[in-house]
Structures are given as structure tokens and as C-alpha cells.
Recover the amino acids of this structure.
């Protein structure tokens, strides 16, 4: 498992995903900024909004960084970085990793990290990814504006 969680391929895939998300965010930031200027909002007002938004985005992220260090010991640097940068829910990530390690027959996350195979790490990755989408799949048929 350690070979997979430290592999250059996983690092490359995670980097591509994060670059895509960053690019997507920057494109929409530029569109929103241009639209605000069209609506008559001054650049000074926009600077104030951007500064306050940065503060309100970074400060809550500090707890996620602390959680990142806790999750690294279980899932390695790259996968933890991906999960917490996209999702940002340490409680969800640690709950899933603990549940999966128990279901796979390990007594703890540390034992899973030391003894798991690539197949078992794949199970962790798939369950974390599918679990994240469960709310989306529930909202499609049962949401207020369902199709």
C-alpha cells in the first residue's frame, strides 16, 4: 500500500485535479469581477470584498490543515491532500478510513497502513469517492426541483 500512496502516478493525478479546480475557480473569479464592474461596483469596493473573502476562506482552512496531518498517518500525503483540499471534512475522511480498516479485518488504521495491499487501498479510495457522491445521488430523485 505504501508504494501506491507515495507513487508518482497518484501525485500526478492529484496535481492535475487540483490544477483543474484552481483554473476553474480563477476563470469564474475573473467573470464575476468583470460582471461586478459592469454593474457599477467600484474597484475599491471589490478589493474590500476580496480581502474579507480571503480571510474568511483561509481562517476556517487552518483546522483542515491540522486534520491533514492527522490523516497523513493513515492515508499518506498525496491522497490526504486530495481529499481534504476537495472535500475538507476530516470527520468524514477519518470515519470512512476507520470503517474500511475494520471491515477489511485490521484492528486500526495504523495496522492497515502497515499491512494493506494496493487492492485494499483501492477499496478505501473508491469508498471515499462514492460516499462523497451519495448526497448528489439522493438529491436527483428526491430533491425539491427533481427532474
Amino acid at each position: 500500500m505504501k508504494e501506491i500512496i507515495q507513487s508518482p502516478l497518484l501525485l500526478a493525478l492529484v496535481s492535475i485535479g487540483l490544477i483543474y479546480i484552481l483554473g476553474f475557480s480563477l476563470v469564474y473569479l475573473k467573470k464575476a469581477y468583470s460582471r461586478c464592474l459592469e454593474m457599477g461596483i467600484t474597484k475599491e469596493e471589490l478589493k474590500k470584498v476580496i480581502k474579507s473573502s480571503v480571510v474568511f476562506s483561509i481562517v476556517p482552512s487552518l483546522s483542515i490543515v491540522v486534520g491533514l496531518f492527522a490523516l497523513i498517518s493513515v492515508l499518506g500525503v498525496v491522497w490526504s491532500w486530495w481529499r481534504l483540499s476537495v472535500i475538507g471534512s476530516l470527520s468524514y475522511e477519518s470515519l470512512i478510513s476507520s470503517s474500511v480498516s475494520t471491515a477489511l479485518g485490521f484492528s486500526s488504521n495504523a495496522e492497515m497502513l502497515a499491512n494493506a495491499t494496493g487492492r485494499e487501498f483501492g477499496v478505501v479510495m473508491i469508498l471515499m469517492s462514492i460516499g462523497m457522491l451519495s448526497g448528489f445521488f439522493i438529491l436527483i430523485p428526491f430533491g425539491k426541483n427533481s427532474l
